Write the structure tokens for this entry.
Amino acid sequence: QLMIVTIDGVAASGKSSVSGGVARALGVPYVSSGLLYRAATLLGLEAGLDLHDAPALLAHLQTHPLRLEPLAEGNRVWQDGRELTDELHSTRVDRGVSVVAVLPEVRAWVDAQLRALPSPFVAEGRDMGTNVFPRAGAKFYLTASPHIRAQRRAQERPEDVPAIEAALIRRDELDRVQSAPALDAVVIDTGPLTLDGVIQTILAQLPE
Ligand code: C5P
């Protein structure tokens, strides 16, 4: 699967911005798998469901189908005619998403949607290189210290840096199982790099 590049990494490591930049340079779309977990969480919260209740969540997702639109300039998520995208990065979704993302039934539901997308594309998330696209042509894994990630996130969330840092550490811990880097992934510490620096590092390592 030379046509698939995977970019995994911890929360707020810059995966979406980096994936968008790499995808634009290659002239292909990128696919943000986290948005599907976030959208499933939002629908569960809105319906008042217990987020641990996999059968109830799955039944709700079946009757309210979600569609990920993997545009190069930014991914969007739709539920019938309603666009959910702007509501997916709220603090309540941040808090609930790891509970939903551990459910095997939800993971299978997300994986099936991702595997049905036409390649080529850049896929971004936690387990793109390990579980979803193990035969991808190139794999990357982004890291950065919790403090640096919290400082970056503070520009886009109402909370202050210490609160964001604590929440990120908690989410890393909850996501640990599905967040291991693929053995054949190139690990990049984004701490000392600019966004463009990370993008150029990845582009320089892609096979011809
Ligand atoms: O990447 P993002 O932070 O938007 O992902 C939101 C959440 O979705 C993660 O904290 C994780 O719980 C879940 N996720 C996952 N596997 C992926 C992508 C996201 O478990 N491939």
